[in-house]
Amino acid sequence: MLLITKNHTFGYELQKLCMVFYPDESIIVKTECQESDRIIITELDKGSTSTTLSVSLIIDQKQMRRSAELANDNPEYYDECERILAVLLFECLTEITGYVPEWGILTGVRPAKLMRRLIEEYGRERAAQYFKQKLFVNDSKIKLCLSALEGEETIINLSRPESYSLYISIPFCPSRCSYCSFVSHSVDKAKRLIPDYVDLICQELEYTARIAKDCGLRIETIYMGGGTPTVLNQPQLTQIMKTVSDCFDLSTLREYTVEAGRPDTITIERLEAIKQGGATRISINPQSMNDNVLMAIGRKHTSQQTVEAFKLARSLGFNNINMDLIAGLPSDTLESFSKTVDEILGLNPESVTVHTLSFKRSSRLSSAEGMPVHEARTAAQMLELANQKLESSGFLPYYMYRQAKMVDNLENVGYAKKGYEGLYNVYIMDETHTILGAGAAAVTKLKQPCGSYIERVFNFKYPYEYVSRFKEILRRKERVKEFYEQYRIPEDR
User: Fold this and answer.
1) Percent of the chain with pLDDT over 70
2) Burial class (CB in 10 A: 0-12, 13-18, 19+), 439
3) Which helix H or strand E contains 29, and what residues bound it?
4) Does domain 154-482 have CATH number 3.80.30.20?
């Protein structure tokens, strides 16, 4: 499908909206018209006092056109041009397809952050009205957004101008799940790299700790993820976690999460290393409690192994456990998903994160490649069911985010019992403060103290690059010092 952009620069945003309606189709953005039986033309025509915005399309022999006027002296002229074009496109595509996305014209990953900004500017009621009337978000998603904001507020207020969190990347997995697009490598393929990788990430952590100290930063949370950190053996986990405890000032640390992840990697030895290393929170991620679904997505564990891993963690004293589920997995049904939620609630974790399946080009399960695509409405029903069951069991939404090419343009939501919210999750999605990243594919996000500017420093994606070009990783870390020299932390903190 062709998307033509005339006299404006909103091609990327409008392309993402088109992908909500046509997730299996390649949307090609052009600035000049071409012959096509599937074409959308978006145009901005600025006159002396007003601007005409229009969308015309031909799709499957159906033709449609919408237009609107905007005064040139509108104080929000640029943003309104983008919004109105999106609205016109939304109206055309909903009429042609019969599909009305629950998130309206919103395609960004952080709807709660936008809602917070609007509340600060206009108040809660007007912000909700803006979501409904201007962005076409439906009532249930507005309610979810507001609920998540309430859960986030206390957590965000804990952060200070000098606060930061630490992310430790372990990009190895026992096998690759069919839906996964993260830069991770199976242990079978990358086993020889792991010893060197562990030694080098410890060096990077030590170097990062010195920089954090020199910059006067205060640590709030640590998150070790990947990948599956528990593919490392007990000595390797101990080596990394001891480096953290030896090198960082953890006196202000509020949360230390290790993503234990796959139940088939969880052993008593690894859990003991994690516990002794100082972790206060772990995540055990079944994704489904249906063994047929697990087999279909390439997970090499059973639902019984999930139960055993959870009980083992409890027996070792872990009192803050999160569990991840995915709605919309191939061969899953609403009934099966309901049983999964019930089984998870029976285990009684402190938090549950419900993800929506997201099709990524680099995953083996990709709608663009003709792989099985779960019926969108069923995924939406799964999320609704999970919300009802979790809230009735005392879990409340505390953070949410969205990804590209999610089934039915839905969302991921974190639910927790009061006092057990995942702090790191909130901080990274809200972009509350700096995140210092260590390891392959880690991204350091530098947040201006008392400001909104964010700068990213990227590590190499792949473990072999990380190992072979490690000195360059350390050189890049010097940017952290330069950043805090440029944006100094207020003295009266």
Assistant:
1) 93
2) buried
3) strand 28-30
4) yes
Query: Both tokens of residue 473?
Result: 């990783």
Question: Cβ contacts of residue 299 below 8 Å, gap of 6+?
Answer: 175, 177, 262, 287, 288
* Residue that has been written with the tokens 């170097």 in this structure: 207
Report pLDDT digits (tens) over 150-169: 989 999 999 999 999 999 99
Q: What is the mean pLDDT of residues 198-213?
A: 99
Q: Six-digit token pair at 276?
A: 């002794």
Mean pLDDT along residues 78-82: 98
**What is the average per-residue pLDDT within 206-230?**
97
| Cβ burial, residue 333 (10 Å; 0-12/13-18/19+) | middle
Structural contact between residues 287 and 297, judged by C-beta atoms closer than 8 angstroms: yes
Smallest CA-to-CA distance from 449 within 256, 162, 170, 22 is with 162
Please check whether residue 253 is in contact with residue 219, taking contact to mean a CB–CB distance below 8 angstroms. yes
Measuring CA to CA, which residue among 107, 111, 151 is closest to residue 128? 111
Say if CB 438 and CB 208 are below 8 A apart.
yes
- Say which residue, 370 or 170, is predicted with more confidence: 170
Token look-up 């009305």 returns 100
CB atoms within 10 A of CB 225: 20
**Mean pLDDT estimate for the chain:** 92
Q: Which CATH number fits domain 1-100: 3.40.50, 3.30.160, 2.60.40, 1.20.120?
A: 3.30.160
In Å, the largest CA–CA distance within the chain is: 73
Nearest to 386 by CA among 345, 329, 332, 429: 345
Taking the C-alpha atoms of residue 417 and residue 400, their distance in angstroms, rounded to an integer, is 15
Among 6-20, 80-94, 349-363, 441-455, the range scoring the smallest mean pLDDT is 349-363
Residues 246 and 284 sit within 8 Å (Cβ to Cβ): no
* Token pair in block for residue 313: 């963690």
Number of CB atoms found within 10 A of residue 31's CB: 11
Q: State the amino acid at position 80 in one-letter form.
A: E
Spatial neighbors of 348 by CB under 8 A, at least 6 apart, are none
462, pLDDT greater than 90: yes
Residue pair 400/103 in contact by the 8 Å Cβ criterion:
no
- CA dihedral (323, 328, 329, 335) positive or negative: positive
* Structural contact between residues 318 and 344, judged by C-beta atoms closer than 8 angstroms: no
Confidence of residue 204 (pLDDT cuts 50, 70, 90): very high
| 409: confidence class by pLDDT, cuts 50, 70, 90 | confident
**The residue to which tokens 């237009």 are assigned:** 67
- Residue identified by tokens 């420093």 is 457
What residues does CATH 3.30.160 cover in the chain?
1-100
Beta bridge partners of 46: 51
β-strand pairing of 396-401 with 412-416: antiparallel
